[in-house]
Amino acid sequence: MVKRLEVAGKLDGLEKLEGVVPDDIPLLPVVPDPLRLAARQGSLVPFIGAGVSQLAGCPGWEGFADGALQYFVGRGKLKHGEFEQLRALQARVKLSIARDLERKHGLSIDFASLLQASSSTVRKTGERVYESLSKLASTFITTNYDDWLDIPVQLPQTVETAPAPVPAPPPPRRRVLSKIADFHPNNLDLGNTVFHIHGSVSEPESMILTTADYLRHYAGHSIDRGRANENQFLSFLQYLFRTKNVLFIGYGLKELEILEYVVEKAQESKPGPSDSGARIEPRHYLLEGFFSHEMQLVENLGSYFLRECNIGLMPFSRETRGWEQLVEVIDYLSQQIPVGKLLGLQERIEMEELLK
Fold first, then answer.
1. Are 210 and 201 in contact (CB under 8 A)?
2. What is the residue extent of each domain of the chain?
3. Is 109 within 8 Å of 68 (Cβ atoms)?
4. CA gap 343, 356 in Å, rounded
5. How far apart, in Å, are the Cα atoms of 28 and each of 40, 157, 290, 316, 331?
6. What is the per-residue pLDDT across 60-80, written as a single tens digit (0 to 9) for each?
């Protein structure tokens, strides 16, 4: 059951704010009509966070940072006591230290092995999740370093059919783009592509790990477009958010800092207050899990993201299965909003936006 939330009176410059908020947080999210339309038009771009990779057995941010330091413990370059002292530090600080140890000892951390699934059971879950994701779009953006999105997953069909004379070929590997030079608006319509905007284990030198890395990556602002000091990465983000419909998946409350940073840097200006009585229609959406006692948090976050970022919140309940419910949610979305083909009209609209 769904109710319409309407907050009358002045609210940070908004005289009326509308959104869809469930009476009870549903196990499967309400899919807004604009999101269905975006999928049919082929303009939907899933933006994948660490929560999805963790379903596939990848470590969280803290586990990843600890693993980078343990690499040196195993090679006798860091004592166990020193490692225990460093564990109390923030993940980015630990990764900065790990990078320094790489340079000091002339070693290269095997980041790919740190991101491997912990068991075959977990890997099967990952295969299910990423097969469902493949049905949502042909172009993906991710802040994850792992290669789960790079090779499309195609699970065997369970329905009995007549044997084919020739086995079906495996799906082609996606085009992996992780360098600044690759982040160009034209590449968003290539199809069968994944953008690793914080780097990829396939090219460890591209990985954005430390605070200094983040500051360099997001330096400046793309309003300098066409000038020598333009940040091409920010220009790419602005084009993405202006011309596509982004669906954030796998960003828990602990990762919202990263998400907010990306969105804030991508905006040339914040969405202004709407006219009196006008409804704010989000262009982008955020999939997020909550417990039943967090209804007030759902309403507050929904209002915040809609007002500040033009992002609609799509809540689902993780009361019974925790984050494992996200597996069912992604499978559900793959059935509700499968990928469509980019329309000619949509292409013209995007070209007009690029020329502004």
1. no
2. 2-58+118-158+173-355, 62-114
3. yes
4. 21
5. 20, 24, 12, 6, 10
6. 889 999 999 999 999 999 999
Closest CA to 194 of 153, 238, 232: 153
The answer, as to whether pTM is greater than 0.90, is no
Instruction: State which H helix or E strand residue 36 sits in.
Output: helix 33-41
The letter for the amino acid at 119 is S
Order of strands, sheet of 193-196, starting from the edge strand that comes earlier in the sequence: 175-177, 193-196, 139-142, 44-48, 245-249, 284-290, 311-317
10 Å Cβ neighbour count for 290? 19
And the tokens for 283? 């262009």
* Most confident among 150-164, 240-254, 266-280 (mean pLDDT): 240-254
Distance CA 311, CA 159 (A): 39
> Residue 159 pLDDT > 80, yes or no?
no
